[in-house]
Write a structure and sequence with these properties.
This protein is of the alpha+beta class and 364 residues long. It has ten helices and 14 strands. The longest helix is centred in the first third of the chain and has 36 residues, at 3-38.
């Protein structure tokens, strides 16, 4: 046998073996998720792609358990903090257009924020600004809040937890100021900016700015939005309670968007291929800037970089709310995207991702 034929046969056998290993992994993943679903320990979507090829996706459970409306790839889930990636993209787009930089200070846009005058974009995007949570400021209410800029008077009275750059604290105020900067530069509300520059550009038909109380009573819902479920004091699964303030607008730049698995995949493909901003910016966006305090995890620019110094390192963001959780990460060195969306609020999505799914996908 000549060398060329030998190498061709070797390549073909390697490809066949690789396909068999890949198939075995996805069969094992499907078995795990089916078992969890049958045991009422998972309801939602798991989506895996290698490069741009969808390798596995399945829906388990219902968007509405009372009406037995099944979940599907187009069902929208509350992303919670998972929607922060849209904020990251908005800021990267403005940097790409030379309208600000990672070193730009807040005072250039909002000099009235005296407590935050020395904070820059880098510190906001890495949660190292010293700011905390604007919702706990005395007198705060979502009533009459229609933009990120509307929140600034409350952030203005918020005391710093530490001097900018001295420590790290994951906080909503950082993202609200980033959203306010987007509004200041674009002369659009944050939802308007995202719709115009990301959602419409990518034709994301199932990515919207909705609050939970709005979709809960949406007359034409029919499974478009997944109801959220929790466990009550008797450990029984029940529908998530409403927010106390039913007029609350909670969809700003810190979290609260709704999206589907297929839309998130289209968003991820565009994000990591330079369709939304110069691909060169991906390097600083996903750099290990600040240790989060969570094992193996660093803050990039809004991105969470997980499993650092392992063959499972990924960049993305998760979101946790009482009724929905999201997990959306790109594992660059494995060319793999993993998206998990669940409407079982009692599921530990990090244990599911790190403890069960990642070992199936990545352990040799």
């Amino acid at each position: 046998m000549n060398q060329i034929k030998f190498f061709i046969l070797l390549l073909l056998s390697t490809m066949v073996l690789g396909n068999l290993v890949s198939q075995e992994r996805y069969l094992k993943l499907d078995s795990l998720l089916n078992a969890r679903s049958q045991e009422q320990r998972f309801s939602g979507i798991v989506f895996v792609a290698e490069g741009n090829e969808i390798m596995y996706t399945n829906a388990f459970g219902y968007a509405d358990y009372a009406r037995k409306i099944p979940l599907n790839l187009s069902t929208q889930f509350d992303l919670s903090s998972g929607s922060k990636l849209f904020t990251a993209v908005a800021i990267a787009q403005l940097i790409d257009q030379n309208k600000l930089s990672f070193n730009t200070k807040i005072k250039e846009f909002f000099p009235e924020l005296i407590n935050a005058k020395n904070i820059n974009i880098h510190q906001l995007m890495t949660h190292s600004s010293g700011l905390g949570h604007f919702q706990i400021v005395k007198g705060f209410s979502y009533q009459n809040i229609t933009s990120c800029i509307d929140v600034l008077p409350f952030i203005k009275t918020e005391p710093l937890l530490f001097e900018p750059g001295d420590s790290v604290y994951y906080a909503t105020s950082n993202l609200l100021i980033l959203g306010a900067i987007v509004e200041k530069i674009s002369d659009l509300t944050f939802p308007e900016y995202v719709k115009e520059n990301i959602i419409s550009k990518l034709d994301l038909k199932r990515t919207t700015f909705d609050t939970y109380f709005q979709v809960q009573d949406y007359a034409g819902r029919d499974g478009r939005f997944a109801k959220g479920y929790i466990k009550n004091e008797k450990e029984q699964i029940s529908e998530k309670n409403r927010y106390k303030d039913e007029q609350a607008l909670v969809v700003l730049s810190a979290g609260g968007m709704w999206s589907s698995a297929i839309d998130l995949f289209e968003f991820d493909k565009a994000l990591f291929s330079g369709q939304l901003f110069d691909e060169k910016l991906l390097t600083p966006m996903t750099e290990h800037h600040v240790f989060t305090g969570w094992e193996g995890t660093y803050f990039g620019y809004v991105f969470n970089i997980i499993n650092v110094n392992s063959n499972k390192e990924g960049a993305g963001h998760a979101g946790n709310s009482s009724g929905h959780h999201s997990f959306n990460f790109r594992y660059e060195n494995r060319e793999t995207t993993l998206i998990i969306l669940t409407n079982y609020g009692f599921v530990d999505i990090f244990e599911l991702a790190h403890g069960q799914i990642e070992p199936i996908l990545f352990d040799d």
